[in-house]
Amino acid sequence: MNLSALQETARRLAAKLNETLGPNEFSIVLGGNCAILIGISDAFAARDISVGLIFFDGPADFHSKETSPTGETADCELEFLTGRGSEEITALFEKCPLISDENIIVYGLREPDLIAESNLQVYTKEQMVQIGITQSAKEGLSHLVTSELPLWLHFDVDVIDPSLVPVLIPTSNGLTFEQTQDFLFQLLCTGSFFGMSIACYYPKLNTTGEAGRLM
Question: What pTM was computed for the model?
Answer without folding.
Answer: 0.94
